Hints:
By secondary structure, the chain is an alpha/beta fold. Helix content is 46%, strand content 17%. The two termini are 31 Å apart.
Amino acid sequence: MEFLLGRLLEDAITNLRLTERVQSVTRELGIELGPLLHDEPDSALGNGGLGRLAACFLESMSTLKIPAHGYGIRYEYGLFRQSFVDGRQVESPETWLQTVDPWAFERPELKFEIGFGGKVEEIGTAARWTPDEAVIAQAHDTPIVGWRGRWANTLRLWSARPTEIFDLARFNAGDFAAAAEPEALARAITRVLYPDDTTESGKELRLKQEYFFTAASLRDILRRFERTHDDLRKLPTKAAIQLNDTHPAIAGPELVRLLHDERHFSFDEAVEIARGCLAYTNHTLLPEALERWPEDLMRRLLPRHMQLIERLDAAHEAKHPSRQVALRAHGEVQMGPLAFVMAHRVNGVSKLHTRLMKDTVFAELNRLYPDRIVNETNGITPRRWLMSANPRLSSLIGETIGNGWLANLERLAELEPHFDDAGFLDAYAAVKHANKRDLAGWLARAHGVHIDPAAMIDIQIKRIHEYKRQHLNILEAIALWQDIHDAPNAERVPRVKIFAGKAAPGYAFAKQIIRLINDVAAVINADPVTSPWLQVAFLPNYNVSLAERLIPAADLSEQISTAGKEASGTGNMKMALNGALTIGTLDGANVEIRERVGAENFFLFGMTADEVLERRAMPDHAARAIADDPRLARALETLRNGTFSAPDPGRYRGIADNISGPDYFLVASDFSDFWRAQREVDRAFADPARWVRAAAHNTAGSGWFSADRAIRGYMRDVWDAAPVEL
Ligand SMILES: *Cc1c(COP(=O)(O)O)cnc(C)c1O
């Protein structure tokens, strides 16, 4: 349902290895290539990590020559554009389609009618569904070029069109509004990307979107198969369908419907074939993010699918009468369990997340199907996140070990023997410094933020969410500010804390965190005593292009989620690859990053996932943590006394009350250890030789986090697929 592609021109040029030629042509034409590349708007048809993962996977599948299609929705409005007014997030529509989309090929011949609502007539055990509303799904194809341009896959996005452009008869009869209904429905379905990837939205329109693109994609897959094959029983050997979260989980019932009702396989055989094709990636354990749809809504919008879900549920119950697992509960269809029973493989996205999946949400289903859950830790494409984003580091790596790393990122380990060569670590440090100088120049030009490029660049960039704990980070900044005032002449390392990220428009607490960070930045940056040592900046409108700009300059990567809550993270991988050291909890892929880059090159703090559960069970955990740490108490006091909201002293009382009261995400309980680890970071940064070696270990040890490795894992464990021979 999401693809967070970012810009494509540079990706296409580098993957076709045309960079030098394009540079010489643009030079001849008197055009500067850099600004030209930055003219392309970001394609932001995704919210965050989940959509970016899909984009990295598409590029990797093209690189590995796996014939694949990405299927999604061509939203008229992508993720909102974020700006700040008085420190507050303001959303405006992202109108990316108002300029031409030069990458897309419109495919008017590729269209399917997708129905909603209506009646079901039972014919034996099968049925005929007659929808009472319909739209046309029409394909738009964007080529995704693989590394070296040997293969390109297709991102096929569906836009909705009215079935009849215009109902002349109704219009002539004076029923103007009704005549426009088909058009209104079509426009509504592909109008906006839902700007919330962690809470299930109760919107009927969202269910329509999910069915719309899933049904069109399945019909496209069957069309392609039936062009060259006649036995649909072989479909699982030819088509692997990976569900990126439960958003397309209606694919299970829909594929059963297509096979049973429309192609006359028995119900059991249809289920078997569908399950052979389908696999499901779980991306979160947050209970509020597990999709559920009211049965009434499902019955009204997709009456035949609701019948099939009831039948799947009954079949499951008959097979496992203890019935601990229901596809339906409390009048709702549970999309996670539905995706699970309709998939032959279910995967987690990091080792820890996979273990927690087996122990918690899918414990019962895992008992019934012990071989179904597998782990495929996420990855990122090194072509975008190292070669294009960080050309200086790429050149240094190329000069040191050649360019084999681009197709096999684990070869970065070959850098390690060079750490003792005269000059390598100096050159590595010089690259980082030059990247930081570039960032300082851009911050001054674009945002009027003036920083010292020698300062530590400390970065937390990701969606704003309580579990990601940007409020823990800003609380530490407040405590540090107070500490500098206490001892203004102590020896310190200068630090610039950079934040970026969007809050879902309806998520009030996250928006308060944004405002708090902006308010804290205003006070701290204007303080002449502390500003030589500490600056805070919140950059607006986080997107892929901003990530590409910030990550090569990062010294410190903040990955500080409450343990057990971040399924994997991929921002953590991008930064480690580019030589930032992580300060992080044992959460998501942080665990695996630490194993690979070395525990001595990673700043670990905080409770483990198991300790989090114990601590949370303690009734006064926050009060105890605050009583034990005067620094924390003093920092929290500033939120209560209006230090950062002078005209409106009550503004941040809500955040303070949350942290000192329920504190579900254990900000208070992890604060002291976070502070300790941050001071360890300071000491390490004060020793440049030690720091650069640790940074280089992060680059050398990050090769395993290539999306190519992840895709090979899916090919082996999930899809039973192989690259095409060229
Ligand atoms: C990588 C990326 C993310 C994911 O970041 P996490 O830190 O893993 O949450 C989100 N948004 C953008 C634009 C990204 O590039």
